[in-house]
Structures are given as C-alpha cells and as structure tokens.
Amino acid sequence: MSDELDFDADELVMLRQLFRTEAQDALEQVTARVLAGGTAKPTPDALTEMMRVTHTLKGAAGTVGLAGMVDLAHRLESALAAIGREPSPWTEATADLLVEVADGMRAYLDVATEPAGEAAAEKLRDQIDLIVRPDRRRESVPPAEVEPPPEPVLEQVPDHVPAPEPKAFLRVEPERIDELMSSAGELLFDRTRIERRVQLLRTLARDLARTRQSLRDTLDAEGPPNRGMLGETESELAGQAALLSQTTAALLDEIEALRRTIGELQQGLTRIRMGPARDLMMHAARTLRALRRATGVHVDLRTIGEDTEFDKAVAEQLADPITQLLRNAIAHGVEPPGERIARGKPAAATITLRARQDGNLLVLDVSDDGRGIDTVALRERLVATGQWSATRAQHANDAEVLDALLGTGVSVRGDADELAGRGIGIGLVRQTVAKLGGEVQISSIPQRGTTFSLRLPLSTALAQAMLFKVGGQVYAVPNVHVVDTMLVEPTETTVTFRHEVVPVLRLEKLLGHTSATDRRPGIVVSFAGQTLVCTVDKIIGPREIIIKPLGPLLASLTLYAGATISGSGKVQLILDPAQLVHRAHPDAPAHAITDAASAPLVLAGRALVVDDSRAIREAMTSMLGREGWIVDVAEDGARALQMTKQLRYDLVVTDLEMPQVDGFDLIARLRKDDRFRTTPIVIITSRANPEHRRRAKELGVRALVAKPITRRKLLEALAAR
Amino acid sequence: MDELRNVIVFVLGTTRYALELRWVREVVSLGFVTGVPTAPAALGGVCNLHGTILPVLDVAALLDQPPGPPVRQGDGALVIELDGVVCALRVDQVENVGSLPEHEGAIVDAGGRELTLLDPTALVRRAQEVLTAATAEQP
C-alpha cells in the first residue's frame, strides 16, 4: 500500500462519496456530448473533451483506490482515442454503445466495492471492446492499442469500509442559490433605507414634542386669559406628537422583525450551502501528509468537531489558509525530536484542528504543541525591520506583539525558508479570513504551543457590488443598479447612453475632492427608472462583498447604504444608488425616486375605523390605505372615544354593534364635540333596518353600508353627499 | 459630600477630560480610518472594530470647540457603548484610571485641579443632532 494513500476508513468513505458525485458529473458529460451528435461521429473537440473528463475520472478513481473504475476509465479513454483516429471504428451503433457504457459506469459506481461489481465491470469491458472493434461481436479480447491499465494503487477494499448509503440529493446549480443570496442581500439594503427614514421620523417626533413643550411653557407663562383656543391646539398637538412617536416606535419594531426575517432567509439559504467541516479536515490531513514527507518532521493530526457545519464556499476558501498555518506550525512551531524529548514531550508533535460554533461565529482553531512564539525575539525583529519603534516594542504587551504577526512581512524565525515563506503567509491568512468577514486571533504559551483561531461569521450577507476609487478611497455601489461603464470627457455634464441623454454626477466633487480635468471612467447607475453616470478616479470592478450596517449613529447619513470591510480590514463605504439618482435628478419628484412601481399617493387624510372584528379592521385599513388614507383602528366605541380625544380625524367608519359604547352612542357623543360636528361618518353594519337609517340620518351620518364591505361600496359611500 | 467616581482621565488637545469607566468598553489603537465625505467635522471617520463599523467622534467638535487634527490610523480612542450606540472618542493620551471625587459636576484630580466630567449620553445625542442636521442641509 502506498504511503500516499493511508486514509483511514472514515476518510475513505468520505472521499469515495465525493468521487461518486464527481464521476456522475463526468459521465453525464460524456453522455450529453454523444447525444448531442445524434448518430454522427462526435467532433474532434467533443472527443477531446470526453477524453479529458474520462482521464480526470481515471486519476480520481485511482486516488480513492477504486482499481476497477481506473481500468474502465482507462479503457473508455483509449476507445475514445481510437474513435478520433483514422480509420475510425465509428458506426451508427457506436453512439448507443457509448451512452450505454457511460450509463453502465454510473451504475457501476454504486456497486464498485461489492461482489456484484466484478460482473458489472466485466460486462462494461466487453461493451467498450465492442466500441473499438465493432466487428468482434461479444469477444472479450482487450484491444491491442490499449496500453495495460496502470497498476491499481490500492488493494482490494477492506471489508470494514461500509458502502455509503445512497442518499437522494437535490442538485442545484450554485449560481441559483447565489442569485437568491444576492436578492436577500438587496433586501438588507432596502431595509437599511427604510430604517433610516424612520430614524429621521423619530427625530422629527422628538422635535415636535419639544416644540409642543415650548408652546406649553409659553402658554403657562401667559396665564389663563390667553389659553383658550391655543390651549386646545396645544393638547391636540400633544396627542399627535405622542401618536407619531408611538407609530415610529412600532415601525422600528417592525423593521427589526423584518431584519430577523431577512436573517432567517439568509440563514436558510446559507444552510443549503453548508457542509460538514470534515472535507476541510481531510484536506488538512492530506496536506500534512505531504508536508511530513517533504520535511521529515514527525507530526500527527488530531481533528475535533468534524460535524460542525461550514458554508462550502467558505470552506473552500479556507483550504489555503489552513495549508499555510500547517506549514507555519511545522516550520516554526514544532521543535526537533531531540529538543522535544529533552522537554519531556513526545517525540512526535501533534497539530490539532478543531472546528466549533461559538455563538454567531464559526471558529476553526489550528494548534500545535511546539515551542510557542518567542515574543522577545519577535519584538526584536519588529524593531530590526523598522516596523516598530524601540519604545513601542518595549511598551506593547504580548498580545499586541502577536497581533503584529498578522501584519505582513514579519517572520518569527530569522531565516526565511521555503516552507513557510517570509511570514507573509500569516498576513495572507488574515486577509483571506477578513474577506470572509472574520478575524484571526493568535495565542501562544511558551513551550506549550501556539493556537491560531480563525473566527468567521456563521451567516454572511453577501452581495455583488461594483468597487471604485475616488480621492484615494475605495467605495462600492450595489451591482444590481450598475448598468455599464464608460469614459466621460471632463466638460460633459450629460452624456448619451443607449439613445438617452443622462446626467453626469461628478463623484469626486460630491465626495469633497477637486474636480478632475481629464477624461475619466464613469459608472452608469440606474435606479427606479432614472439613469446617471458617476465619474470616478478608477474602476476596480465587481466584487462579492459582505454588507455591514452603519449603525444607529450614522443612519442619518443618507448618502451611504452601508459599508463593507476589505481584505486588509479597511472600511469601504457603500453609496446608496437612490441618493445618487436623487442628486443627479434633483427635479424629479421624490415619489418617483422612492418607489417607481407604485402610483403616487394622494393623502386623503386620517381615518378612524371602529369595529370589534379584527378581520374587518384589517380589511378596511387596507382598502382605505389604498385610497390614500392614514388609518387608525379601535376595537370598540370606548377606545374610539379615547382616541378622538387625542386626535382629530377626517373620517370615521364605525360598526353599530359593539361592546360598551355602541356605534350610535359613539356617533352621538362625537357630534357633541365641536371638532367632530361635521366630520364625515360612515356606518358599516350587517343589520340595517329603517329605524337605523332614521337615526343615522338624524346624526348626520354620510352613508350606511351593509356588510360585506367591498371597495366599490366603500368608494360610493365616501363619494355620497 | 463629594462622591467618588471610577473614571478614565484623558487628554485631548490642551484639555483634560474625565469619563466614567462604566461607559468605556475598550481602549483601542485605531486601525485604518476611512473618511466619510459630506459628514460634519464631529465625525472623524469610520474604522473596523472586530468586523463592525465603528464611528470615531471628535469630542472637541461636539463641544463646539475647534475640531482637533484629522483622525489617523494608530490614534488612541475610547470605545463607548450606550443605548445600543457604539462609537469611539479619539483621545491624544490616556492619563490614568482611578477613583476620583466629583465636585459640582467636575472631577477633582489628585493635584486638586478640576477637569470636565463628560456626559456620554449628551455627547451621543449631540452627535446624532449634528449628523442629522448635516444631512438635512444637503440638496
């Protein structure tokens, strides 16, 4: 058995599972290409491609020790090569045969390690022979031009490796999930925009309350004679201010609920992309094996938490950092065996890879039991390389010194060796982790070892953004709103883009830099039907970014929709396309900018709906809302009376039969109040008899509508005079 | 009777200030500072603090004094947290941390000198006002 393939049983099961997926894909490609050609001989390109995937398949099969599969893939590859040569053995039946072989090999994958596998392989070998020599029906002689298959790299599979249970998987192209993720990311932008406006509303409510208070103070100072009408207005204002602040508080709660839902959506989507940390640990095991052979350093790997779930994309990106950290441990951490024994440690070092979830973070620890990082030597090197001043090195604590290691260009060992680079490696680790929205922590105990902790967010709000530079700083704009890029002349204030004249927004000017005098790149941004071109210093290009909220303090800076953190840990601001459009089209009506989809809303006024049925209240709210009314609701007459004391309404819609204060009672009392003497009132009821109609008329009720309420009935009632 | 307060004493420009320790989450050396164009001088910029966006405020500007020099990487700052708002106050130097008596709204240090006791709630509210006002002024 080769040293390269000392997988343990679990590892082998895992690898074979991966191989099966890969092989299914490869063979499907072969089938697809054959079918695409009908009964005609595949084009040279198609043949080359089929040979390529078959060849890859052969290599992979060897890696996971499936000798039978290696043999079959090898034969298939040779057969494909033969088809490409002249004279070609291609006949009309060959296409069918190829498809049969590809399908047969896919079926073989499931039985490759079982006794039934040999018979299946035998049959496939015959079929492949038939492709190469169509004249030799059913004769199982290996074709002469086929070289002997490579020696099986693994012996017969040990019995104790169970064949993996076939599991039904829904296979989805990753792009589809990415699209959904990106939409979910967009939702976050939208939410931020809404939140910001509500925050402004809240400020407004506070201002209103303050104004009311000063009015109150003035009135109190003036004394009773002047209080009359103004006093009444003041108390009304108080009610309105209170309601406004209540409503904004409720809105903020709802936005919070929205945030949670978006979070759940993102989490759900993320879960689709999740896989156990095992794959990553396998990768580490293989890397360590290679390193062991290359260096001769004896080191064992211990893995903990293989079942911890990781975003597969994240795991893929972590492969390189893990490799780097392993190299680092071997180059810097692990002492020679002699030294280890002298210190009472086992001669073989152990590197522990531990995956775990810590709150909202995924943590991957890479620990060695080596000598630890010599912070004294590291201080000296920081000073020697001119990165730190002697004073700083003297005053910094160990944690800060270790942190410096995460920068670039510092190596713990004096001599830079090939294995671990020049300490730049750790800087790259930090960069990769930062790109994924995480951070790296180092802890080290002298003579006990070093631990690198990669801390990554569990769910990432990923979005596509266009990155660009203005005035030396990098900014981003959500890519969904970027239509194109172009060059803009220095004097142009408008440009023609796709037969349309669009304004030019000089971002360098907006962002407080001197106006440029040269021709510069422009980003064409479109939002809510409005288009503009933003000039920038330099376009960096589209990138996947993690959106971070700016937080409550900066919420009022409307120009920005959020921020992201670059690979090197710098904050980059995300410009809000809505604001860019607003600044380039200042004359455009605000509603067209905020929402192009919905028709402009005419505010009809404030309405109060009184009904003991929640369903009716909701229905009325929605119907009236569509007509431009701001709707408050009350569940009975008593509550309605309370509310009318605080606020004046332009319309009251009430049910008749309600607990405590009924509808007529409510209307009678409202009519006694000067503010409601002539207010339009509409009764909605399921029981309208002549007596009701008479009383309604007496009370100056505008209309009496029979339930069920429809929009038409309601509109007629409102229009009635 | 003067009450003892646990405070952190820092220097900003030529002034010494005291801030109650309970508001201070950490004392940091700032990472790369990203400028925020269109924001008022009270906002020195934003930084990355453990993967979140940290606004850095200029205390002098918030107290209607001439703003200090631009915030730069490596500057010291106190990260404060109150009412769900996390932000940093840039400082020139942290002098000491200790229990000092409060006398009529000011802290008296060991040398008998009085220093301003900052009210972080008022500072944050002021910051919010300044930022909102700056936004409202824009076209």
Report on this structure.
The complex is a heterodimer of chains A (721) and B (139). By secondary structure, chain A is α/β, with parallel strands linked by helices. Chain A is 48% helix and 19% strand. Chain A has 22 helices and 22 strands. Chain A has a five-stranded mixed sheet with strand order 2-4-5-7-6. Chain A has a five-stranded mixed sheet with strand order 15-8-9-17-16. In chain A, strands 10-13-14-12-11 form a five-stranded mixed sheet. In chain A, strand 21 (681-685), helix 21 and strand 22 form a beta-alpha-beta unit. In chain A, helix 3 (67-84) packs parallel to helix 5. Chain A is extended and about 105 Å long. Chain A starts with 8 loop residues before the first helix and ends with a helix. Residues 1-6, 138-164, 408-424 and 589-603 of chain A have low confidence and may be disordered. In chain B, a hairpin with a 2-residue loop joins strand 1 (3-12) and strand 2. In chain B, the strands form two sheets. In chain B, strands 1-2-10-9-8 form a five-stranded mixed beta barrel. In chain B, strands 3-6-7-5-4 form a five-stranded mixed sheet. Chain B is built from two helices and ten strands, in the order E-E-E-E-E-H-E-E-E-E-E-H. Chain B has helices at 59-62, 120-137; strands spanning 3-12, 15-20, 24-29, 43-49, 52-57, 76-82, 85-91, 93-103, 106-108, 114-117. Chain B is an alpha+beta fold and 139 residues long. The interface between A and B is medium-sized, with 33 and 30 residues.
